[in-house]
Every structure is written in C-alpha cells, then in structure tokens.
Design goal:
The protein contains 9 helices and 3 strands, in the order H-H-H-E-E-E-H-H-H-H-H-H. It is mostly helical. It has a single domain, classed as Intergrase catalytic core (hpI Integrase, Chain A). Helix 2 packs antiparallel against helix 4 and helix 6 packs antiparallel against helix 7. The longest helix has 15 residues. It is globular, with a radius of gyration of 19 Å.
C-alpha cells in the first residue's frame, strides 16, 4: 500500500505517513461507475467481472463466452480512455487490498462479497445523495438504459447492440429513445 500511495501522491515511499493513508480517495467506485456508464453492465456482470476481462492497452473489456449473461457469445466492449485510466488505477490499488488476495473479481463489497442488484442499487442511491442529485426511482439498470440510449442515439442501434451485449437489435431498440432535436433536423432536411 505504501508503494501505491507513493506513486499516487508522487512522493518518496519513505515520506509516506499514516495521514497519507486517508488522503487518497479510492478508485473503486469511480472505476465501477465509469465502466458501467461505458458498457451498461448488468448487476450480474458486475458480480462476475474479473480482472482479466480488462484490456488496458486497447481500452476495452472482453467478456468470455463462459461468463456471458443471457447468451453464449464472447463480447468486446469499448471504453473511453478516461475510463480505462481510472480502471487501471483501480486494478493497481486493488492489488494492495487484502480482501482481494484470493479473488479474481474486480469489485467486492465492503464485506468482501460480490455485488448484487440490492447492493448496487444502494450504492447508486448513496452516490446520488452524496452528489446532491434529487431522489427518484432509479436502479442500476437505469444506467444500462442510459448507456444504450446514448450509444444508440449518437452512433447506431447496431453499435448499442454490441455494447449492450444483446443478440438481437430489437432488444436494444427498446432502450433507445428518439431524440426530438435530431428528429426535427431530419424533418427540416427532408423538406
């Protein structure tokens, strides 16, 4: 942990003090949220996510077919470079945490268990409260729907299908809400 803090704080390892241990925020939650925002992770995928799925050199995750949820395909999902950086930082930090010593799972709860729907929904609620975001009916799947909508609206339904790990584009289309402004532009261009 001292070596990790030395690197994060950019100071010599011998200069790390007990006060430094509480001064660096964990990258765990940032990596979890950023990865989910980019890939629309299902709660079951968060629970199963392995360190080996992360490909930092190519800023992507690769979910092997044996861990694929709801189908049997191998999935490659793109990450923003910022997400890949935060995820790399978490992987480094994670290596310093004893509760991860016997686990390949990328994220564990404070009790050392894999995340589930309930714990992820509570985490999302706590994060929204901490950020001052108004309370409303929101679940982990809200992030998934949002990701599909953003990718589908800004790229294509096919891009969203691949990022969401859906076999059928019809499934993805249920997530995508047409953008009124883009519809208006298309109408204006047509006549």
């Amino acid at each position: 942990m001292k070596a990790y803090l030395s690197q994060r704080l950019e100071k010599p390892k011998n200069d790390i003090t007990p006060d430094d241990f509480g001064s660096v925020p964990t990258r765990k939650y940032a990596s979890l949220i950023h990865t989910t925002l980019d890939t629309g992770l299902r709660p079951s995928e968060v629970a199963e996510f392995r360190v080996s799925w992360f490909d930092p050199a190519n800023a992507r995750i690769i979910i092997p077919e044996q861990h694929s949820q709801k189908n049997t395909n191998r999935w490659v999902c793109s990450l923003r470079q910022r997400t890949a950086t935060i995820l790399s930082q978490w992987v480094d930090e994670r290596a310093t945490r004893a509760k991860y010593d016997d686990s390949e799972r990328l994220w564990l709860t404070k009790y050392g268990n894999p995340y589930g729907s309930g714990s992820l929904n509570r985490l999302l609620e706590d994060l929204c409260e901490h950020a001052g975001i108004a309370k409303r009916d929101r679940t982990w799947y809200s992030i998934r729907r949002s990701t599909a909508n953003v990718v589908g609206t800004n790229a294509s339904a096919e891009h969203a299908r691949k990022q969401m790990r859906h076999k059928q584009v019809e499934t993805t289309m249920r997530y995508i809400q047409p953008d009124e402004e883009k519809t208006r532009e298309a109408l204006n261009q047509g006549g």
